Amino acid sequence: MQNALIVLLSFVGMEMFTAVFHRVVMHHLLWVIHRTHHVRESDGPFEWNDVFVLFFTTSAIGLIIAGLPDGVTVWIGSGIALYGMTYFVVHDMVIHRRFLRMPRPTSGYLHAVYRAHMAHHKHTTNHTGEAYGLLWVPPKYWLSSQKRRSQGA
Ligand SMILES: [Zn+2]
Ligand SMILES: [Zn+2]
Fold first, then answer.
1. Which end of the chain has fewer beta carbons closer than 10 Å to its terminal beta carbon, N or C?
2. Which ligand neighbours the alpha carbon of 134 most closely?
3. Which ligand is closest to the CA of 26, given by its number?
4. CA 38 to ligand 1 centroid distance, Å
């Protein structure tokens, strides 16, 4: 039970950490790498921005291995890994339709996530930005999602 709570807290913590990391590191210090996700320059299946996936995956695996068999970092690493997998499915497969070309969400929670992330992608410089998080959708994007649907878009 306690371990499940650590996994859950790590998952929630990752959403908060990612929002700050995305804003401070990816849009400033390492914008040269993250830019490849905002300004598409090649048609290949990968972009330089994917090194961030490698970084988080390695961190999660490292934490799990360091804590084996049942140390606290096993559960922290599992929460990070679970968040990473969720992020990959929602951000890469559903929103950007990489690899599987899943259908675009047209209603509900995923549509609000999609609208918020598209607002984030409107910015192609590192100086301006919005909606740095992913799974937590600020209220204004829920409203814009509902408005779009009532207009039939
Ligand atoms: Zn970004
Ligand atoms: Zn994106």
1. N
2. 2
3. 1
4. 6
Least confident piece of the model among 19-23, 86-90, 146-150? 146-150
Residues 37-49, mean pLDDT to the nearest whole number = 88
Domain count, the chain: 1
| Mean pLDDT computed over 54-68 | 98
Cβ-contact 115, 148 below 8 angstroms: yes
* Confidence (pTM): 0.92
Distance (angstroms) between ligand 2 centre and the Cα of 37 equals: 6
125: containing domain? 2-150
CA of 72 to the centre of ligand 2 (A): 32
39 by Cβ neighbours in 10 Å (0-12 / 13-18 / 19+) ranks as exposed
| Ligand 2 center from residue 43 Cα (angstroms) | 15
- The answer to whether the beta carbons of residues 62 and 56 sit under 8 Å apart is no
Q: Using alpha carbons only, what angle is made at residue 46 by residues 45 and 52, rounded to the nearest 5 degrees?
A: 150
